[in-house]
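Hallway conversation turned thread

IA: we were arguing at lunch whether anyone had actually written out PiggyBac transposable element-derived protein domain-containing protein end to end. Turns out nobody had. So, for the record, here is the sequence (353 residues) and right after it the structure tokens. Reply here if something looks off.
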Amino acid sequence: MAFISILFVRAIMCPVGAIVDCWSESFLVPLIKETMPRDRFISIMQHLRFDDRDTRAERVKTDKFAAISDIWTRFNENCAKSFTPGEHMTIDEQLFPTKVRCPFTQYIATKPDKFGIKFWMATDLDTKYVCSASPYLGKDPSRQKGERLAENMVMKLMEPFLDDGRNVTTDNFFTSLSLSHRLLQRKTTLLGTVNKVRRELPQLAKDTAKREVFSTSVLLQCGVDVLDQMARMYSVRSATRRWPVAVFYNMLDLAPVNAYILYKACTGWTGKRRLFLRLLAQQLRCRFMQHKEILAQRQAAAAAVPGTVKTTQCQVQESCNRNRSRFTCATCKKFTCAKCRDDGHWVCKPCKV
């Protein structure tokens, strides 16, 4: 938790440059330095894993996302359980910018960052809350033959929110007549732009679709696109060569946005999101800092005992069998274990005599 809090503090206070600069004299962030030493942070980052490597080879045969799928699934479940979306929802794509080498890195020329990992997202239109999200991993063997990818993805993302009379807005990649029929059977309506080359669209509907493009585009821009801008404003993203870490960064960008929306809804708080992230970081590191303070108090108490040094073998060995000790006799300065010292003072038994 303290490690994650450092990522959030960096996002709001020192988002530019290498993350290790936060410990340097030129770009020092005191809150980060007092939380954790730089080398400890780097060690956690180097050993950061999200699954069992011993079983990954078997799981990756059926799941390309196996390296982080368990964490991502739990994140999705928590998002869906914690919030009830309103009447209107939107579905669109998000390209998380990264150039890590993985089988499903995408190139989209129309995006500001051309390379990245693509995610499909269903968001609440009014609050921009991420209700569900799914990565694009290429061809899905579980998809039925003849079913369009876009249609399959919409039904997958909307599954927890169907049968409640909602409306979902999509762009021309998703919108189709068959999708509208499937959603209507689940008491859900569809609003979206339609590609004019679709065979299922008659000429009259094509003319109408051209007039509806603007209003639908406005709704889409109010959904996933605005959410993407909110997430990037205070992003924990940093350079990495491991795609699971890149996905983890995206998760840490989206989770605080959802948490901020829930916090405002439950408490009526009107503060800025940057201040909320600061409070969130403090809460995440609170338990770690308390434990750190307890250890410091113990070390200070041990240092108050005369002659405390590193642990070594007892040099008296009158009542023990080579026990270990880090205390020395106050008289002869020999390392003395608890069995070989006087009960009242830290003096070895020979010196007491």
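OS: looked through it. The first strand starts at residue 88 and ends at 97.
IA: good, adding that to the notes. The chain has a mean pLDDT of 84.
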